[in-house]
Predict the structure of Phage protein, HK97 gp10 family.
Amino acid sequence: MSVTFKGDQELLNSLEKMARTEVYREVVKKNGADLQRKAQQKAVFKKGYSTGATKRSIKLDIASNGLRAVVKAGTDYSGYLEVGTRKMEAQPFMQPAFNEIQPKFIDDLRRAGIVK
């Protein structure tokens, strides 16, 4: 008597895909938290009246069932700080933080076998 399972390769493929998705979620969560921390570190402004409101307003939101991390500053004027205006020089904090974290994120994805 022998037992043969049909569709076992499909099951294995599905399980492997689920495991990869879980690893991806962990990488996104870790790097999202790193980006939030780095943006808060860089949100120190020398010009004008600094209250620390922008730094405190930087929040992390894990979206799309853990597949996307959104880091944003909640103050109404954070965009003006980032890019400046015609009368105010830019004091970027989000883009430099992103530029630091992006290579680490890609390396983590490579180590996890998600990206080649």
Observations:
- Helices lie at 8-42, 53-57, 78-83, 94-111.
- The mean pLDDT is 89.
- DSSP finds four helices and two strands in the chain.
